[in-house]
Every structure is written in structure tokens, then in C-alpha cells.
Amino acid sequence: MVAIETGEMVEKEHTRKRRRLAWDVAPSEQAEADIRPPVVGNPVLCRHVSPPKRDDDREGHYVFNLGENLSPRYKILRKMGEGTFGRVLECWDRQTQEYVAIKVVRSIRKYRDAAMIEIDILQHLAKNDQGGGSRCVQIQNWFDYRNHICIVFEKLGPSLFDFLKRNKYCPFPVDLVREFGRQLLESVAYMHDLRLIHTDLKPENILLVSSDYVKLPGCKRISSDEMHFRCLPKSSAIKLIDFGSTAFDNQDHSSIVSTRHYRAPEIILGLGWTYPCDLWSIGCILFEFCSGEALFQTHENLEHLAMMERVLGPLPEHMICRASRGAEKAVKKLHRLKDMVSQHVDYSRSSLIDLLHGLLKFDPSERLTARQALDHPFFKNPT
């Protein structure tokens, strides 16, 4: 009998105020430390001075100062983000004369081992992406520096979660949700064709290619002298990042994957998981894009399942017959999915609700595949 824990499982839990893990490039933060790349050709400014040897901090993070070198090739400009794995630094690549984002992994064995697996997956994704249409972030280089695995990526814009957060969680327009959804499904379909399952799809792991945006006045007035301006990205182009939890379909799977808000019911019930868990996550993500709020805001399994039943109807009996029951919390504030989406989307002009129902099927065998979802009328016949 598979028991559902009523307490916290060992998992990647995130509150709504989630730490920024993405490669954040807010215009207001570009001025952080007036450190710019050296003038090409100046022998004094171009000297490659290695930083003094320092111990890592207590958690195994690389200790650095802005302006120092991360190997002779890369100059550290600023910290872009931080997560369980380590830190992401914006650097200047002296060889290519370009800005890059470097993931500096903590000097702890399990994170180093995970980083090497991620490098293998990134190289596998890149090798098979002949036309450049995978929409997966591109690895440019990797190296081992002072016991830290450093993975060099193209520099991208902010995550869609950070964009929502800075926009006071104003939802994206439906047409923009459609563009994000199409690209995300194309990326996941590409991965699934290679027998890879991302397992950690969430707005933090979807980055805009560009940080440029436009302001649209009049969302709402915050105070008598401050108007909140709704921002929209100038370009809808996105890329998928963070393949540290990606798994091949034929390998042994850990019991718990995905960040809580985007975790499929079969994972919670301990029934095993495969490709469809990514599609459930996409359904949750698309709802969040069109509403500005996470569909399931909870940190406990029974409450999570109760929320699912409140929004989507009862769980299939064959999925819960081996799992303990007793979800005692009635989540009365939640409504049916159609009603929740209709608050933000004109039901008469969009088939988004039908797409979400196809992505959020309880039974993973009935869930839309990425290729099937791309053929959905929401993408084929937008009205």
C-alpha cells in the first residue's frame, strides 16, 4: 500500500515568493557595480589576473569579488541568480568578446556529479539540434575551476516568473500565452523525441531570449502619485533551461520529481511517472500565465490532491485504490477550472480551457502528448 505523507516530503518546495533561480537581467540591476568588459587591445586593462585563492563558503559556494577572473578567459561582472546547485554569474568572455552566463556549481560531490550528468544531457540536446529549433538553452563550454564545475551558457533575458513578479502578477495577454505555450511544447516535444523527460518545468525555468520590454500605462493606480505600468516583452522568443533533473525514459526514476506547484498527481500518489508529467506541468504553467497566479498553491500532499479534485473533479478510482485516503481539508475557495480561467479569458474567443483540460487529465495515459497539444485548435485556429 502506497502511503501519502501528511507532512513534508523530501522535495523541491517553493513558496510563492520563490528565490530567483533564473538568469535575471532587470534593467535596474544592470548598473550593479560599474564593471564593464575591458577595452580590446589595451595591454594594461586586458591583463588576466587570477583571484587570490579563497576557501568556499560553508555551503560549498564559490567565493568571488566582482571584476575578478573565473579562469583567465572569463571576467565576473555580477551575480545573476542563485539556487540549490550553486550560482549563475554574468561574465565577459575575452575569447569571443561576448557576455555569457556561467553556472558555478557548489564544490560538493553530489552537485558535481549532477552537473556532469547535466553537461552530458546539454551536449546530447545540442548535438541533435541541427536546425537550432529546440528552444533549449545552448551550452557553449564547461570547465573545472578550483573544484567547481562551471557551465557556460548563452546569456538570455529574465525568467517568465520574474517577469510576472515585476509586473505585479498581471497576467499575460492570451495571444502571448499562445506564443509561449507553442514554443514550450515544441521544446518539450523535441526532448521527448530524444526520450528525455525534463521533470522540472516551471516559469522560473523558461527564459525570455531578450530582456527588452515595453510599458503599457493604466493597469492600476498603486497610490496617489504612483501608477503601476503593465510591462510586456518586446519579443515572445523563449528558451528552456535547467536540465539538472532531466531523466532518460529508460533509466531508474526517483520517486519525487517536479517543483510542488507543477507536480502531477501520479507523482504524489507514488504511481511512477514518465513523459506525461511534463505535460501536466505545462498545463499548470499556462494557467499561471493567463491568470497571474499558481493553480495549486499548497505545500502538502493531501491538500494538493483535494485542490485537484475541487478544480478538476474526482480522481479516478484506479489511481487512488492503492494510496491512503483522507484529504480532510476542503478547499472551498477553489472553483472549477472553466470558471477560474473564464475570469481572465473570454471563453467565447478561446479554446484555452479545452487545451488545459487535455493537459490536466488525472490519468497520464489520457493526457495530451506534446505533439497532440501542438495540433490543438488553440494553436491551429486562434480566434
Offer a few descriptive terms.
single chain; Phosphorylase Kinase, domain 1; Transferase(Phosphotransferase), domain 1; alpha+beta; two-stranded antiparallel ribbon; globular; 11 helices; 2 domains; six-stranded antiparallel sheet; about 375 residues
Describe the protein's architecture and organization:
- By secondary structure, this protein is α+β, with helices and mostly antiparallel strands.
- The chain has two domains: 27-154, Phosphorylase Kinase, domain 1; 160-380, Transferase(Phosphotransferase) domain 1 (Transferase(Phosphotransferase), domain 1).
- The protein is 27% helix and 18% strand.
- The protein has helices at 109-127, 160-166, 174-193, 265-268, 276-291, 301-312, 317-320, 337-342, 352-359, 370-374, 377-380; strands spanning 69-70, 74-82, 86-93, 98-105, 139-145, 148-154, 196-197, 206-208, 213-223, 226-233, 238-240, 247-248.
- The strands form four sheets. Strands 1-2-3-4-6-5 form a six-stranded antiparallel β-sheet, covered by helices on one side. The chain has a two-stranded antiparallel sheet with strand order 7-12.
- Strand 2 (74-82) and strand 3 form a beta hairpin.
- Helix 5 (276-291) packs antiparallel against helix 9 (352-359).
- The longest helix is centred in the middle third of the chain and has 20 residues, at 174-193.
- This is Protein kinase domain-containing protein.
- Keywords: ATP-binding, Kinase, Nucleotide-binding, Serine/threonine-protein kinase, Transferase.
- One of its GO terms (cellular component) is nucleus.
- It comes from Nyssa sinensis.
- Pfam families: Pkinase.
